[in-house]
Each structure stands twice: as structure tokens, then as C-alpha cells.
Amino acid sequence: LFQVFDKQVPENESFDEVLPLLKDAMMAKVARRMKRSDINTLDDAVRLLRESKNIIVLTGAGVSVSCGIPDFRSKNGIYSRLDEFELEDPQEMFDLHYFRARPQTFYSFAKEIYPSNFKPSPSHDFIRLLEQKGKLLRNYTQNIDTLEQTAGIERIIQCHGSFATATCIECGYHVPGKEIEKDIMDQVNYWMVFPLSSNVSICR
Predict the structure, then answer these.
(1) 121 & 145 share domain
(2) Which of 117-121, 129-133, 159-163 has the lowest mean pLDDT?
(3) What is the CA radius of gyration of the chain?
(4) What is the pTM of this model?
(5) 76 within a domain of the structure (yes/no)
(6) Could you tell me if residue 197 is inside a domain?
(7) Residues with catalytic annotation?
(8) Is residue 199 assigned to a domain?
(9) pLDDT: which is higher, 63 or 193
């Protein structure tokens, strides 16, 4: 990749040291998307929305912050609370190997951001309005909070999964997320609870 971008390949460097250099090399060559010269004001944006169809909306943690759900990388975000969650690396929160060893860490986080604790934001309502007007092609979100569904958005792709469903990592037993909500709120520290009427063995 360094050769592609006409940059000298660093020697004896760790991955963490090389990554910023590679980013700089890419940014030096890859042109930024050109701004449309006819879109400069809020009125221009409103006009564009009125005229457009097949609008794609990309959303991340910021769209739910006003609902009370913390984001990840801001000053008071999840990643700033490593000591509280007893994590050495914030990525461990979503690492399957770490989850197998310490499921309570994820469950404590899940309780804090569980969808039933929150209501959709005006941003969610606006995306729903786009859908009602027949303008929304798709809402792609990184969020797992399912506030899009709560707002009534149907044309949604949750890129990182969501609380809408839960699957046992041992046997693949699949349930609606609502069925394990009480276990999350009660901080039950095992991977999945099966109904006693189920033929599947209980996984703990």
C-alpha cells in the first residue's frame, strides 16, 4: 500500500506506529468528495430534501446521545470509562473471547443502554418522516439501540446487530430480545436463559 501511494515503507515499525503513516499516505492521494456548489444554506438543504427521492441516511452513536445513550469516543463516552468496566482495551467490550470469560461486563453495559430505558430523538422522528413521505431509500445505522424501530422506521439496516434479537453462542437458540430483557435488567450473568418448556438444554 505504501508503494501504491509513493511513500517509503517504514522498517522495524510496529503496526500501531505504521497505521497513522499509512493514513497520511492515503490522504495525500485520495481526493476528498467535492462539495456541491449549489448547496450552501439551510434553505438549499431543505430544497434538496424536497426535490430528492431515494435518500440514504447514515447514523451513528451521535443520533442517540440526546436520548441519554452515551457515545463511545467523546470525553464522557464509554471508552473513557475503562476502569469502571475493568477493561484494558475498549474493544474488549465487544470481543467474543472476553465475553465468554466475563459476560457480566457486557451485561452491565447492556443494562445501561437497553432500549426500553429511552425514547427516540427528533433525529429518529425526522428519518421516519422521510420514510412516510416516500423519500427514504434506506437508513444504515451503526447503533444497536433499536430506537429506529421504536420511532417506526422500517427501511433500516443495523450494521452491527441490535437488541432486537438474541442468540445463544453455544447452541444457536434464537429468541426476540424482549425475552431476555428481564435477565439483562436483573444482571443474570450467563449467556442465555431458555424457557423451561424448551427442549434445548439450559446454557449457563
Answers:
(1) yes
(2) 159-163
(3) 22
(4) 0.71
(5) yes
(6) no
(7) 160
(8) no
(9) 63
